Fold:
Amino acid sequence: MLEFHPIANVFPLIEGEEFNQLVADIAANGVNEPIWLYEDKILDGRNRASAAEAAEVECPTRLYEGEDPVGFVISANLRRRHLDTSQRAMCAARIADLPKGANQHDQIRSPSREQASEMLNVGKSTVQLARDVQQNGVPELGAAVDRGEIAVSTAAEITSLPPEEQSELVARGRDEILAAAKRIRAETQRGTTGTGENEWYTPKIWIDRVRAVLGEIDLGPTSSEQANKVVGAKDIFTKETNGLDKEWWGRVYMNPPYSQPLIEQFMLKMVEEVASGRVEEAITLTHNYTDTKWFQIAAQASSAICFTRGRVKFYSPDGTVAAPTQGQAFMYFGTNVEKFVDIFGAPEVGFVRVAPFDPLGL
Structure:
């Protein structure tokens, strides 16, 4: 009878035809890589061990004697398995929920959610969605995410339904799950704040400039999955997850909703997050509403501003290109002002003002 260490359960077992193929391969060729043991339990190699048991083939074993069994299991599995963001988020959530002192010597310390997200290279808010699925979803819903059939954000929507309805949806298949999640999302959005009914995305040419300054983008606090295909932020807040209610962190790019009161709320939120120190560096893109209170507050808090030469040609989710009636402004928050000036102060890009600002100059 196989006994797995709690750490081994972080990554899901393979199933179905993939498992059957592994059984057949082991029956024909044996187990090529040893099973790792820790405290007399299987630490890594559950799939090989299960397949070998099914094939009635003996497994070679090796004792893990290192000091970081969690890191060892993560490294080994990420090296041999190709997992998408949602699958990694589910693993990170399980890591963060490992029992304290998960071995007889009380040597294992469960990583925090932040540490787990870094270990699996997935955003903290996505890990929180995974925890919601694991805590509030039926087991088969989480298993669908683990298999890569649905996104963790979709599964999180379904957890609002009673357990029996969740089970029925999973049994009906992926299309039914997606349709139900869409209905739930539409109902939830009625009367809630988000990024606005009309979403306008930043063209890649401008995102490339943002990345040239920030290096990486850790968070897009007013984004969507479609917009993030171009932005490439490690983590995003959407209409559903509402970034106004969350803490921000790291290097941030924000193209906020331009309707009131949302644009003011998000820009003032940026000022607060920068002041808190949680946001290390940020760039925002808005119309150049220089007469508004929120613009002047954000401008005074920023390190530099670029007033674009020409207008940014935003595009909608269906590819329609917008024709704004006024120019735009990129505000930079951070210490790498020289690089921002180099990139955004190029003659073809725009005119840059660097703090401290003269109010009359705005």
